[in-house]
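Input record (Table S2, row 425):
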Amino acid sequence: FSRTASLFRSLTSTPENRNKTDHSVLRHLTSKIKSTGPISVAEYMREVLTNPVSGYYVNHDMLGPDGDFITSPEISQIFGELLGIWCVSEWMAAGRPKQFQLVEFGPGRGSLMSDILRVFSQLSAPLGGAEMSCHLVEVSPRLSKLQAQCLTGDQSQVSTNEDDPVYRRGTTTTGLPIYWYRRISDVPQGFSIFLAHEFFDALPIHIFQKTEKGWREVMVDVHPETEDKLRFVLLPSATLASSTLLQTDEKRRHVEVCPEGGVLIQQLACRIVEDGGAALIMDYGHDGVKTDTFRGFKAHKIHDVLAEPGTADLTADVDFSYLRRVAGDRVTCIGPISQRAFLKNMGIDTRLQVLLRHCQDPSNQAQLIQGYDILTNPEKMGERFQFFTLLNHRRLTTPETGEGLQKRKGPAPLPVAGFSELCLR
Ligand code: SAH
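Output record (S-adenosyl-L-homocysteine complex):
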């Protein structure tokens, strides 16, 4: 229960260093804009979040007690436990392949993976024969160290060779090999379950507005009167992005598009087709209807996206209709469905009851109930947070058995857990 306790500390703490402002990101951006002109919102986001020297993710533990936002795995252990069951259920439905890679994008403090690995070690009987391994795609060396402490108890080594695609490796406290990479292309091929929790919302977006002359891109410029301030401008002519990233039948007048998210979905779809497996994407998002979702978070409060860049998290809701479109018909896409529906289908109510029965301390019981409420209440994360999956087509087709005239339909495939009720055979 310690994680829930630290969450509530985190929401009330006002650390001293929170007010210290580092202007290096702003200086870097203003000199860049002055020499080459306004930059796209995508470039702004990329520089602010993942610049290897000054990026927000590279330098912050944004989820800690002194952090800027809080995520489901940090709120309740039940979240990761149910996802652990989801991973096992998809592996079983795929015919229990020998190789089983669990891949997570942007694992934050490692809490989700830690809860999943606990479930895996409790399910060692059904998982028995599988050769399991963990693969983390993480851009921040600082967070990778925290993840390693959480998952390996310091049993990890950093690579001394800068060109090594595996920049850290180790063994989890549950005995599995674990590897860290900077990008998906470095993760070995093979049957994989891919998880991305609050990852796609951190990928850079372009912003467009419909004008009388057609679509125009919103850019970031230096303020004409105040040199150390940034402002949004609308470019008078089309950009490559504004002429290529929008749909001809787009109904909205303001649109955010995340091409890096699109590229990642294509890479995931290719791998799922070639090697089998599934991807589960969990994020604040919508199905192609929302506009103007780009926002900043600092110390758990909304923060002006252009103010003090590098000191606050930047995020934009995920457009799942765009992800579905780029995935194409190579894979089966299901969702998005709400976090509330997904967790209820996975049996969150039963799991809560079991934990409450085993927990004597009233304050821990209250925290469990409060965590459950934050995750599932439609007014909190229940409806706004969405789940979306990519599956190999074989997953939902009924296999044929036998030869020639003896051919018979095999058993119907298991429903996909979370998107319908959990059912393990
Ligand atoms: N999944 C965690 C953390 C979410 S924050 C949770 O839900 O608690 C986003 C995470 O993605 C951080 O770990 C951040 O360092 C990582 N990240 C952001 N952009 C990335 C990129 N382009 N490549 C790899 N990791 C990235």
